[in-house]
Fold:
Amino acid sequence: AQTVTQSQPEMSVQEAETVTLSCTYDTSENNYYLFWYKQPPSRQMILVIRQEAYKQQNATENRFSVNFQKAAKSFSLKISDSQLGDTAMYFCAFMKQKYGSQGNLIFGKGTKLSVKP
Amino acid sequence: DTEVTQTPKHLVMGMTNKKSLKCEQHMGHRAMYWYKQKAKKPPELMFVYSYEKLSINESVPSRFSPECPNSSLLNLHLHALQPEDSALYLCASSQAGGAWNQPQHFGDGTRLSIL
Structure:
């Protein structure tokens, strides 16, 4: 069974600075996908960034980038130039690739990020 | 603005009531999902519909009854719920078929409170 671990329950960062959220996972699969979702107090789960395991290049999306270390089973999220609107719960999620089957997301417990002015 | 719309946003009901949660998407997605999220916890998968057919039921009690009347709508019928069922219920959708790696798009959720 796959598991996703986020070891930082809470973090804070000053506005405009950089912060890194950690995520590790355990799987015996070789092909899978990793995601970071954010959930602000407004409740909606918003996709931040995703990474395909077969791609060596780290995914980037504007101020958000990941450090994907497949051998170490690590998938950290870096937020640059933090903004007040980045304040949210961040969930790391795993989904194995299995054609003809459903995309079952397995979430970590989340990291609550607070951006301070 | 969310592309997955859930109604109602809040629901308070007694343990003997019957109510329904609704979810709608117009992105052409053929996979739809129900998740349950307790406070300060990650979402937990309840049901998955693929092409309007139930494909995954994560051992959810029968007091929760899902329904997918068409490709755009997903309902969750509630009956005889327990206080521990109070939670945020999230609906999500994604492309289906051979591209199961497609990300899921979530709605804002329905905050359910059982008295």
